[in-house]
Design brief:
The chain is α/β, with parallel strands linked by helices. Helix content is about 40%, strand content about 15%. It is globular.
Length: about 575
């Protein structure tokens, strides 16, 4: 069994336990195990057979025994026992956006709903609203999810952060092989899309057969479908399909451009080429008037033959990049090294894993000149709560760490919860003592669009709030954005000079590329943060930068490409907290 299949079984076991009302620690144990299994770079089945499954984080003796049982019998005894208590289709309901196991169990207990068709009927007939906690909006959301094709089956796309880790590991392993000349990641992973369905690698080699054989033998590869001098196709242990293409060096640019896509970009590129009397393919650029086919060693040569400047992979989505490239109007996109500081991270004071000093030193190692410590406020809703008195003590600790470190400014901040009325959940007197205040919605998501928009605009206009964190509240593939009028939010932010965040957490990437581009064009200023809950996740800012690049943003659009004194001049409040 591949890792993806094993992980699905343990994720389902977690859902079944939650349906059964098990304690949260048991449910989380199986979900964490599923995550560790899915992300393991080697075969977990082989580890388990060798008695080494417990080397995985979150996998103890009991779960290791269940892995072996699943491999031996095809099922987990405790899962089979739980399945006899509920209809087999009830787990499908738990995967409908907005439901989850607890709400699906409530529908089952109150209305006997155990299938997707029964859920649809209840939503259409209005009986769904008879269940406490399920109003008309819940019924609308259910019908919208079903209309969009939700069928309760686990989604097959995975987050970019997971896919890119696999892709880069595979590429690096192939580069180290003596037969390889050049190996690059292509496809949607190279463009930085939010989720990825499969992986593409493009290579040149002086011994193509040897490189294909080496690819088939990599530890991350589970099954090989085909292999030869032109490349190979395989599945990884976490279920990703990988296509390796090997071409002569003279065609490397043609193939890399073609397989980096996107489909719409390539279709528009070919249509534009035809109007110029040219034909573009993965094999070259053919001049119809002479019949000559030009091979390109680089992608830049492909675009040059078509009368265009080089187009960065993140822009290849047919959103105006071809005309901009032809007219010399492409932006100089933001780079990771342009960032000078991180203004959103957490410590053990709330739900982080490291101390103030550890987070500060982590930021310093990344080359930053400032970092803001922004632990969650008292009404955050989960994790440790930082009371007003706790925050006052935290400010003192931050000042002490700042005084003891050279080369970096450590800022006292907070991530306040935006209350339903739009106010922050600390008093203004306390907020005024801080260097930086980021405000985010962490509770009461199910407000109407007008109510949520008014709530956010009031937060934006608060004189002591510097930035709005993860402004739509989405979790990619897990939670839809809350209802909010982003045009009003963006306009208010531009007017008040309150920054809007692109959150680098790969589960969020919020603002999205579409909304970030809209915000920048409307005159709002962006800040890109890691939202790190540990030193190791400070690197998540990479995904915020990728999102910004896909949004056509330059360094000028992003506040924290400036040093701290320059950023203060952009901020919409004076030293005394007043608006200009």
């Amino acid at each position: 069994m591949r890792n993806a299949e094993l992980a699905d079984a343990f994720a389902e076991l977690g859902d079944l336990y939650e349906l059964d009302g098990a304690i949260v620690h048991r449910v989380l144990a199986y979900r964490n195990a599923a995550k560790a299994i899915r992300e393991a770079p080697v075969s977990v089945a082989e580890l388990a057979r060798r008695g080494r499954a417990q080397e995985l984080p979150g996998v103890g003796k009991t779960i290791a025994e269940k892995i072996v049982a699943l491999l031996d019998t095809g099922s987990i005894p405790s899962a089979e026992k739980l399945k006899r208590k509920f209809p087999a289709t009830l787990v499908e309901l738990t995967r409908i956006p907005g439901l989850g196991p607890k709400r699906a169990r409530k529908l089952y207990d109150d209305l006997g709903i155990g299938t997707l068709e029964e859920l649809r009927h209840a939503a259409e007939s209005g009986t769904l609203s008879d269940v406490p906690g399920f109003g008309p909006k819940a019924a609308e959301n259910v019908l919208a999810a079903l209309a969009a094709g939700a069928d309760g089956r686990p989604r097959r796309r995975i987050l970019l952060s997971k896919a890119l880790t696999v892709a880069e590991d595979l590429a690096e392993a192939l580069r180290e092989h003596p037969a390889a000349d050049r190996v690059e990641v292509a496809g949607s992973a190279r463009r930085g899309t939010e989720t990825v369905k499969d992986l593409d690698l493009v290579a040149t080699a002086h011994d193509a057969r040897a490189l294909s054989d080496a690819f088939a033998g990599l530890s991350a590869v589970s099954d090989v479908g085909s292999s030869g001098e032109a490349g190979a196709r395989a599945l990884t242990h976490n279920g990703l399909s990988v296509d390796l293409k090997i071409v002569p060096p003279r065609n490397f640019g043609n193939l890399l451009q073609h397989f980096s896509g996107s489909k719409r970009h390539n279709e528009a590129l070919r249509a534009d080429a035809v109007r110029r009397g040219l034909h573009v393919s993965e094999y070259g650029v053919t001049d119809d008037s002479t019949g000559t086919t030009h091979s390109c060693t680089t992608e830049a040569e492909v675009y040059e033959l078509l009368g265009m400047a080089y187009i960065e992979p993140e822009l290849r989505e047919d959103r105006g990049e071809l005309r901009a490239a032809a007219e010399g109007r492409l932006p100089e996109l933001l780079r990771l090294e342009d960032l000078r500081g991180d203004l959103h991270c957490h410590t053990t004071a709330s739900d982080g894993r490291n101390s103030i000093e550890q987070m500060a030193r982590g930021a310093q190692r990344r080359g930053y000149s400032y970092v803001a410590i922004t632990d969650h406020s008292a009404s955050h809703g989960f994790g440790n709560h930082v009371s007003p008195d706790d925050l006052r003590r935290q400010i003192e600790r931050v000042r002490e760490v700042d005084a003891g470190l050279e080369g970096i400014t450590v800022l006292a901040g907070t991530e306040v919860n935006v209350l339903p009325d739009g106010s922050p959940d600390y008093d203004d007197d306390l907020l005024a003592e801080l260097d930086w205040v980021i405000a985010s919605v962490h509770t009461s998501f199910r407000m109407s669009e007008r109510e949520m928009t008014d709530r956010m605009v009031r937060a934006i206009e608060h004189p002591l709030i510097d930035a709005i964190g993860h402004p739509t509240g989405r979790l990619i593939e897990r939670r839809e954005p809350y209802a909010v009028n982003l045009e009003r939010v963006v306009a208010a932010a531009a007017e008040a000079r309150t920054f809007l965040e692109i959150n680098g957490n790969p589960d969020r990437r919020d603002l999205s590329e579409i909304h970030a581009r809209m915000a920048a064009e409307a005159g709002a200023t962006i800040v890109i943060d890691s939202d790190a809950h540990g030193v190791e996740t400070q690197a998540n800012v990479r995904y915020g930068v990728i999102t910004a690049r896909r949004a056509w943003l330059t360094a000028a659009h992003v506040a924290n490409t400036r040093e701290w004194p320059e950023l203060l001049e952009l901020r919409g409040r004076g030293a005394d907290g007043s608006r200009p």
